[in-house]
Amino acid sequence: MQRTLTITKQWQIYIPEEIRTLLKLQPTDRLKALVKGKSLTLVKEESPIMKLAGSVKTPPGLKVDLDNIRDYIDYTGDDTP
Question: N or C: less crowded end of the chain, CB within 10 Å?
Answer without folding.
Answer: C
